[in-house]
Amino acid sequence: MLKKFAVTGFKGFKDRIELDLSKHRNYEFNGFAIKNGIIKDGIIYGPNGSGKSNLGFAIFDILNHLSQKTKEPHHYVNAAYAGDPNGVMLFEYTFDFSGCLLEYSYEKDAKNIIRKEALLVDGRYAFNRDNGFEIDRAQFPLAEDNVKALRENPNNISIVNYLAATFPLPEDHYLNQLLRFVDSMLWFRCLESRGFMGLRAQGEPISEFIINNGLVDDFKAFLLEVSDQDYDFSEPLPGEKLLYCFIGGNKVSFIDVMSIGTSSLYLLYYWLQNIKDAKFLFIDEFDAFYHFKLAAAVCRRLFRYDCQILLTSHNTFLMSNDILRPDCNFILNHNEIKALCDCTDKDLRFGHNIEKLFRGGAFDI
């Protein structure tokens, strides 16, 4: 799981900002949101322009050099803080893999070229490329020529990828665990345009996916459960690749009649079918087109899954102890991110109306 993340100099984050998912309280309700001492489910709120989307992009920067899954490189053009375009971007990740603590960090220049890279395992360096190159040769017995090449590293190769490709490591080796985790990260959103990063090598038509996997009835049930919409879908004909439904006795294409909100649910349903392969999910503005009660229903559905999930939202209706807990709701503002319970001196309890307190200015960041 991702235990902690910090970034400096990326987009609007001039100064270091840290998201610590190990800082949770001992609330006795909604224990599903905490797994192995780490926050598993969280929602991030903040004003427009506070950096919610950029935080997601920063977390997923790691895909750009450690994964072959789908990427959206346009999000990383001119990614360095605009006030210092010649500056550097520092990314710091702490992962917990069944008690093995990995601290992975790297520094990129304004052209997205890795200049420094380091990995600590349970507090000891596996390697460190910082104005030179050091490596634990007991684990990775490299020849001196290889060490020299990595020290200079003219091809900008990631040391993690190099070591994983060079040495026959066991499946449970921490490098393989790291690479599997990164490959199973998923970011997506559905605003004016759709996009996703990670998990899959390429996308596919959603209707075709639903039909080919025999999920028409399940999709119908999903829409009825979360949004109370009861569509009468037709049985797909052999070779049919589009979903059709009956309206007033007429057979029409589903994508031609669905609303913007239903289109967002259509996309969400597709990813929920693939979420069993994900270990970390970040949905940006997940409820942009949802009614507030629908957003709550989707949250409850999402939080049933075992993978780690972070959502961004403006919908303060979701600030409810019936959905999550104060240590799993975060406020991002002024280059700082803090859990609600850390934004007040009040002793927050299950019976408190968290949204009312928030609207009343009880939380300060």
Keywords:
365 residues; alpha+beta; Rossmann fold; seven-stranded mixed beta sheet; 18 strands
Describe the structure.
The structure is a single chain. The chain is α+β, with helices and mostly antiparallel strands and 365 residues long. The chain folds into two domains: 2-198 and 278-359, Rossmann fold (3-Layer(aba) Sandwich); 200-277, no CATH class. The chain is built from eleven helices and 18 strands. The protein has a seven-stranded antiparallel sheet. It has a seven-stranded mixed sheet with strand order 12-11-15-16-5-17-18. The mean pLDDT is 90.
Give a brief outline of the structure.
The chain is 26% helix and 25% strand. It is of the alpha+beta class and 365 residues long. It folds into 2 domains: 2-198 and 278-359, Rossmann fold, CATH 3.40.50.300; 200-277, no CATH class.
Instruction: Please provide the count of β strands.
Output: 18
Strand content: 15-25%
**Average predicted local confidence, pLDDT:** 90
The CATH homologous superfamily name of the largest domain equals P-loop containing nucleotide triphosphate hydrolases
What class do helices, strands and sheet pairing give? Answer: alpha+beta
Please name the CATH topology of the largest domain: Rossmann fold
Largest sheet: 7 strands, antiparallel
Task: Provide the succession of SSEs.
Answer: EEEEEHHEEEEEHHHEEHHEEHHEHEEEH
Helix segment tally: 11
Low-confidence stretches: none
CATH architecture of the largest domain: 3-Layer(aba) Sandwich
What spatial form do the alpha-carbon principal axes imply?
A: globular
Give the count of structural domains. Answer: 2
